[in-house]
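During the first year of the project, the team set up a workflow for recording each protein of interest as an amino acid sequence followed immediately by a discrete structure-token representation. This format lets reviewers and collaborators read both layers of information side by side without switching files. As required by the reporting guidelines, we include two representative entries from the current panel. The first entry is reproduced here exactly as it appears in our internal archive.
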Amino acid sequence: MLSAAPIRAYIPASNLRRARKFYEETVGLEPGEEYGGGVIYTCGGAEAFMYQTGNAGTSKASQAFWQVDDVEAEVADLKARGVVFEEYDMPGIKMKNSIATGGGAKTAWFKDSEGNIMAVSQRLR
């Protein structure tokens, strides 16, 4: 059953060397196993597989998000590392310091070196 099987996210990269530098040096992820020309990153027990493809950065939707306990702290840390966050104008969503609040969460989006939209998000209880 798929509900019992681990799921792995994909991170497409048009330039694997550049993408690895961004995720490892700027974002701070530790590379894991390399296979099939790509690399696995483990984040909070889940895995993401970065692979080379010409389709990187073509989605207009978020590729993935990290669920964090303190979005303000994560955004501040990532900004200090050189990550540039997106600013969106969305109905019913209040945006302050690159963080959108609404829909039961605080979320901030950034584009990686390949143009993929990634996010950090904190659920509000």
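The second entry, processed by the same pipeline in the following quarter, appears below.
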Amino acid sequence: MKNIKNYGISILIMIIVFFFLSLLLTLLSYFDIISDKTLSIFEIICMIFIMLTGGFLTGLKSSKKGWMEGLKTGLIFYIILILINIMLIHNFNFKMLIYYLILLIPSILGGMIGILKK
């Protein structure tokens, strides 16, 4: 039960940060403050930050194997993103699968950093 609570809190924080950063990037794009190329770079940076943060928070609360805790957190968030993508966009391809798999690396690193900072 304790692990589920830890994962839930980390995922909730990741989702809140995701929606906040998405809103911020949307507003910057809407008012033409940033270009499309810059927007895509910021999207990748924001996703790396979100995954790193989620893995870090889970790693802080775990007692061992930070990489495994970061991987679990990343996979949970990964599944949520895939479900949202399938339900809203209806376009899921191999390129997006690879993109989401690459985003697991910052989550694993965040879990390892979280264990070290404990």
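For the second entry, the following points were noted during internal review. Residues 29 and 60 are 35 Å apart (CA to CA). The mean pLDDT is 87. Both points are flagged for discussion at the upcoming steering committee meeting.
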